[in-house]
Design goal:
The protein is of the alpha/beta class. It is built from eight helices and 16 strands. The protein is globular, with a radius of gyration of 19 Å. The two termini are about 25 Å apart.
Length: about 260
Amino acid sequence: MKVILLAGGFGTRISEESVYKPKPMLEIGGKPILWHIMKCYSHYGFNDFIICAGYKQHMIKEWFADYFLHNSDITFDFTHGRNDMVVHNQHCEPWKVTVVDTGLNTMTGGRIKRVQPYVGNEPFMVTYGDGVCDVNIQELLKFHQAHGKLATLTAVTLEQTKGVLDIGGDNAVKSFREKSHSDGAPINAGYMVFQPEFFDYIDGDATVLEREPLERLVAKGQLMSYVYKGFWQCMDTKREMDLLDNMLQQGKAPWKVWQD
């Protein structure tokens, strides 16, 4: 199953760092937060990624272009007048990474729509490129497959100002409202699963995922929440970036479910 990563925004709330590189490429412990997210999915067996890039998208492509080189032991042999390269040991994950320039000003829903040709007619996952979580992806997928609806999102309860959810006793999402005052209600943490029919709910580049598409799913009773009480943290600000970095340095990073 393919995993779509939304990594094209300007990152204006952390502009002191994102002025130099895309927010998903800002580093925690020497590796981009995007890499941390991918490592979580990979831990559960999901290794086929589609990155929706936009702002400074060339930096994402260049990072992955060099990734194999930087994680391998290599001999460069120029003795025969050629640049012969011998790879002795490589330490890369078994990833397939498709980086797509989905436009500079395209909205989140529009970015997903643009990568439809790379997904095909099969279920897929989506998450944001600026938040880490220790959710069990396999359990999330089992929940999605069991309820038979078109979409599942992971809901966490934090005092934040994200997309606020009203969840019924059957875990069906009854209403969805974007960013309002903090009230401790469940919020959309990303880590979503969709059936391929979801593409029909996205009109074009101007479509915001968190508005019309999800609201239409709610109206049709097709959006379910995977209520998760574990760790989740976004990286909207420099303070949150430093928080995550400090947690990793202290060996207290719940999202690090993989072994070194």
